Amino acid sequence: MRISLVLAVFTASSALAFPWMTPEGMEALMKHPEAQKEIKRRLEEHVGAQSGTVAPRDPQLGTGLIPGLIDLIGGTLKAVVDPIFGLIPTEDAVRGHKRFPEPEYPFRPPGSTDQRGPCPGLNTLANHGYIPRSGIATVGQIVAGCQAVFNMGADLGNLLASGGAIDGGDILSTKMSIGGPDPRVGILNGALNALLGTPTGIAGHGKFNEGDASATRLDFYLNNGDNIVFQPELFKQMHQAALLKGDGTYSAEAIKYHFKNRYEASRAANKQFYFNLPSAGVVMGAYYFIPGFFSNGTLGANGIANEASITSFYGAKPKDTSPNAWKNPNLEYTHVPERIPEQGWYRRTTPMTVAEAVGGILDVYLYAKPAIGGAGADQGFVAGPALIPNNPQALSCFFYNAIYANFPSELFNTVALVSSVVNFLSSSLVPGYKALGCKVDFPQASGIGSTYRETYEKWALQYTGEAKTKAVGSGWYKKP
Ligand code: HEM
């Protein structure tokens, strides 16, 4: 009873939240006189901006991290002085690193109307003003903030943030909420939300970004749609993994172990469990981000994700603050707003590119070997792709294509205007995409006509499988 009620609510709200996913919704939009005027104006603006004045982005590939990456992140990290609370790592670990926090970006807790969501990285950026404190940000603002504080490569920032904008934000303004739906985001800056519904924000479940089996958030269907709020019990489990597998640090080994446990627990408890590409990739990538970005110093070069860094970035406040309390596997936590460690923290020196992040996803995946797919309506498991692309280049190309493939296929066949907008967005993705030599070229395939549909359907079957539309927990589930 409860499940069918939740499902009914979800089905109804997803239709409202993504009205342009249906031809009817799109038609309504296209016929609206104000919308037509505004879309035309914005397209002209975008086309103008594209024609020459904007320098191509540096995709920042070639950090030399792909060969041996899996060894690097899976291996034992050298201990530094006081790996648990020592916020200043060894000299070697911080040579050339930039120190944070910066006085120009003071920490301020979010106000009552500010959006915060499932991502501790973005929440931290908003709490320090590196992206708007409102939590409503454009693709460009998110890319710049992630680069400034965490040294995320522009290619990776663009890939994640564009996925967020296309699946959970406004494709015209490129704005999105870093939490749930917000009336300030929507088609034509929200002006048409009353008519067409409000985009979900990056917390939108099972599309490009948010997925099940997350490190510290509960599954969408297990918590009445709340996949945003930090769960102290899950953080406690991650802390236990750190004690057991990382000598008290949140190393790659510790977080992989935590992921394996989380996958098994979610799959057992969640009758609408959904773990399919691309959102499953984002979930596994987020696990790698814990040591990859939050380490104090550079992971693989003496940088360590210690208790002090992780608790601060996650906003996990231990109830017992006595010096040896961290050794207690039953240590309890509460939640406070996420912040850069006050005592001082050093960001990684090399940008994390798409290639490194995807290497991290593969490392997490190969450790736990989770089945890819989702629960079907008949309580069976609808399998996703049999083999997920198993090398960083192939899997990276998959993610680029997934951005385009996740864009509703109806639109490619019917609305030329929208494909122009997507082409605009793709200008932020193409450099990284090209640099990796990806083959199926969705942005190049203009998206119009029957050839596109055939290419898309072949691609979808191979790479996302039937689970995308047939598993009930998928954001794309269509009732039989
Ligand atoms: C480029 C923009 C980014 C976007 C669009 C984004 C989006 C997301 C989303 C949708 C989730 C939920 C995934 C899930 O279901 O588990 C998530 C989780 C997460 N993100 Fe981000 N993220 C971004 C950047 C970052 C950065 C820069 C960091 C670290 C510095 C980060 C660290 C994490 C972590 C650790 C989680 C897992 C949270 C948990 O469940 O414990 N993200 N992010």
UniProtKB/TrEMBL annotation:
Cofactor (UniProt): heme b
Domain Heme haloperoxidase family profile: 103-359
Entry's Gene Ontology molecular function annotations: metal ion binding; peroxidase activity
Keywords for this protein: Heme, Iron, Metal-binding, Oxidoreductase, Peroxidase, Signal
Signal peptide: 1-17
Sequence intervals crossing the membrane: none
PANTHER family according to UniProt: HEME HALOPEROXIDASE FAMILY PROFILE DOMAIN-CONTAINING PROTEIN, STERIGMATOCYSTIN BIOSYNTHESIS PEROXIDASE STCC-RELATED
Family statement: Belongs to the chloroperoxidase family.
Listed name of the protein: Heme haloperoxidase family profile domain-containing protein
Organism of this sequence: Sporormia fimetaria CBS 119925
